Amino acid sequence: ETHGITFRIQISVKELLDTDVLLKLLFHLPVNYPSTLPDISVNSDQLTRAQCTDVKDKLLEQAKKHLSEPMVHDLILWIQQHLKYVIKQSATVCNEKPTLSKGTSTEDGIWMLLLHLDHMRAKAKYVKTVEKWTSDLRLTGRLMFMGRIILILLQGDRSNIKEYLILQKTSKVDVDSSGKKCKEKMISVLCETKVQSQHKRYNLFEVKEYSTLDELQKEFESAGLTTLFSEFVPPLLK
């Protein structure tokens, strides 16, 4: 009676990259709703944090148009119809950021991502797809194979790394045990951090195979990533 009502709604929208986007919406309706706007929270594994914020802002904009009348159902219908445009608009804003002058350091925008894949059944196709994505998004780094360990180390603009993660999680990039195309469900984000001065910047993206753990360790050490290796790679052998 004093705090209002809070409830969650999950909706699936087939808008982004021709795949289903699962939106997790949290509505808090205050006691004097609908005369007062609801609080809205938006989460999705397929969208970046910035995109979720944009979706929330657009929903609140729509909510203002329905003030003093029940609106939750209308808001859900609206985002189902307009998610594609909200995401496109969000990407456009990101792309329109002014370019830095030659004398300005761009390190603030360079991030690093370390991913662990459980397996690749259709290895050749999978590798080709990863190479295309990294090329399209101007990401550098390594796709590393050592025994059963598969690691992807990426460096690049943070927004492009987020876009890569969306592609990795939402595209049918591998095949299942029956040979049907499937999405990557066995992926772990081991580390996502800003590139530091001691880290080597990769100039290109390469696929490499290592016969021993020592060889793999030397790859990390040569890039100034000894700590990253010791923290995340040995536990994968257990």
From TrEMBL:
Gene Ontology cellular-component terms listed: cytoplasm; nucleus
GO-annotated biological processes: positive regulation of hypoxia-inducible factor-1alpha signaling pathway; positive regulation of protein sumoylation
Superkingdom of origin: Eukaryota
Keywords (A to Z) from UniProt: Cytoplasm, Nucleus
Domain RWD, first and last residues per copy: 1-86
InterPro entries in the cross-refs: RWD_dom, RWDD3, UBQ-conjugating_enzyme/RWD
SUPFAM superfamilies per the UniProt record, alphabetical: UBC-like
Subcellular location: Cytoplasm; Nucleus
CDD domains the UniProt entry points to: RWD_RWDD3 (cd23819), RWDD3_C (cd24164)
Gene3D superfamilies noted in UniProt: Ubiquitin Conjugating Enzyme
Main location (coarse class): cytoplasm
Name of the molecule in the record: RWD domain-containing protein 3
Protein source organism: Uria aalge (Common mure)
